[in-house]
Amino acid sequence: MKKAFSQRYSNLLGKSIKETPNGVEAQSHLLLLRGGFVDSALAAGIYSFLPLGFRVHQKIAEVIREEINNIGGQELLMPVLNSKNLWEESGRWEAFVPPLFKVTDQFDREFCLAPTHEEIISDIARRFIHSYKDLPFSAYHIQDKFRNEKRSSGGLLRTREFWMKDLYSFHTDQKSLDDFYAQAKQAYTNIFNRCGIEPVIVSADSGSIGGAVSNEFMAVTEIGEDRIAQCQKCNWAANFETFKEGEEKKLVCAQCGSTDVKEIRAIEVGHIFQLGTTYSKKMDVSFTSPEGKKELVLMGCYGIGLGRLLATSVEINHDDKGIVWPKDIAPFNVHLIGLNLEDNKVKETTEKLYTNLTTAGIEVLYDDREDVTAGVKLKDADLIGCPYRVVISKKTVEENKLEFKLRKEVESRLITEDEFSKIID
Questions:
Q1: What is the pTM of this model?
Q2: Is 11 part of a structural domain of the chain?
Q3: Domains in the chain: how many in total?
Q4: Which of 107, 216, 345, 416 is most exposed, with the fewest beta carbons within 10 Å of its own?
């Protein structure tokens, strides 16, 4: 079995803080700052992911990879720096909202910092697609993006630099696009479920991306900037940008006509589009049909912002003590706390458990600090939010047991190491 990566809290970069930072509105922002997951000292909307936060970020990326690979997505990596000519070809150099971050090199050539990659993937596709035999296929990357937002807000919920998974699919006909779109919709639902979110899928406006069909995945929470209308009769839902109004200015369901429609606040965690020929027509992405005729490729695109998903997971999964991470994206599986470490037997027992768990492939955050109280250690464990907490102390050593607690539960209990091994497996 592969040895896991584990970490001693005493030399972890980025410790917890007691103070409530100024200007913090979202609970996720507060908990991520206080727990030592992110640092925001640079500028508004620009964050550094500290080791704990970056581990969660990487776990989210792996969840996304697993689900997108399962529907045939091929991972690649496209550049952040995009040339002006491609964005002019698509008509978005001046039209993209918010405006592009634009830079000029030493030869006065203009570039932008990509907020999305339809232009680049279309350029790649048109050089590798020749025949209907080359289709369908889908490709994605997980990479840095830049959005020139007027106002950043909610911590990681709206930033100017962020990592995004953008997937693009290419098809010969509408049925092929429809089939893959349905697969992508299910993959997205799986991703969000694994991140502790049950999304509401809504009809949405395509905005600066374009295309005729568009759906957003919404996480219902009061902190959300978006408003959605949801029918209580048939569960149809739409972003307020797309809902229909009746004669008496009541919300009316576009699917069944019911007026029993409620307004709900939510965070958009994913957005998928059927682009059709929006980009293939402008950029000449085509293929030769079985009859030898030139046809335009149909495209789809599918995006998830990793930082926003991370923050949304915290908004949904926390209590009054701190974060309660879903197992698939927790920074570590086990938060091991050593109390009374000045006692040689206690320290030896704790160190041995730390080594055994790590060797068994279980990721451990080990609070080995000897200069803080038990209360501080326990509060930090609740704040950080790993799924399993294990405490070793004089009492547990005397009874040849360990104190075990699930983060989502209130009570702890004494169990043997063998019993713990069966739980953690």
A1: 0.94
A2: no
A3: 2
A4: 107
